[in-house]
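Why should sequence recovery work at all? Because a backbone constrains its sequence more than one might expect. Tight turns favour small or flexible residues, buried strands favour hydrophobic ones, and helices have their own preferences. The token representation captures these environments compactly. In the example below, the structure is given first.
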């Protein structure tokens, strides 16, 4: 899982992101890792979303998130 090819789509997505803990940034990271993000419903301003995917996609998401957090700590 540590190859650059597996992590490059997420790195592109996060290049313009301002905060890793922003929900939209995390959802974009999940999508770039190959996960499906669906809007289940919305009550007022609160959105209820589901994220689903293969174990391989989840591993790519976790690796990209770890890379993003490590980059954030060094900046």
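From this structural description, the recovered sequence reads:
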């Amino acid at each position: 899982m540590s190859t650059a090819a597996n992590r490059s789509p997420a790195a592109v997505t996060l290049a313009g992101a301002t905060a890793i803990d922003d929900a939209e940034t995390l959802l974009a990271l999940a999508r770039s890792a190959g996960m499906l993000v669906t809007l289940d419903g919305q009550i007022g301003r609160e959105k209820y979303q589901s994220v689903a995917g293969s174990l391989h996609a989840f591993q790519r998401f976790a690796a990209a998130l770890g890379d993003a957090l490590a980059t954030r700590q060094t900046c």
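A few observations help interpret the result. The chain has a mean pLDDT of 80.
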